[in-house]
Amino acid sequence: MILRLDILGRFLDLTKGEFAIQTSEADRRADYPGRDRMLALPGQPGFDPWCLTDSVAYAKLYDNPKAIEAIAALWKCDPEPDKTLAIQTEIIAALWWGDIAFPLTHAGTRIGYYYCCPWAPIYVARRSVTIGNQRLARFQKFTFDVSAEVVSKGGAFKRQILTSSFPKEVLCFKRF
Q1: Which residues have CB under 8 Å from 83's CB, separation 6+?
Q2: Each residue of 15-24: pLDDT tens digit?
Q3: pTM score, whole prediction
């Protein structure tokens, strides 16, 4: 039996006549599910205000009034939500293609999520990749740091790929 992984992640048995179509890396990257769909913008049908939030955080916070208020304020203050969602789309694509993953502890559990709204996942680059115009090296940990915390004080809205070793002080493990 000769097995080969095709571009959809399926193993094909080449001894049974199953053949994978050869494609270039650029063609493969251009052809991922959702490539023609931008995430819905605030105010549009289908908009998910929690789309930047780690799934574990969402499960803990979706019914918390303070968290709901913080998420609403974040999107209200975002001067260019299309740019925020474009970077999130890049992250989704990189996750889909295995360029990034969720880092694990020595026990095999996820290390947590970023401590502040929107409680974004922590990722690790599995290979060199560019997200949000920032080049990430293999094994580099990062999160998508989006914040409106200082906007009410005259500060700027923050939208950046934040790299760090993510010590426990900046990770969340418990309820808001």
Answers
A1: 159
A2: 444 343 343 4
A3: 0.77
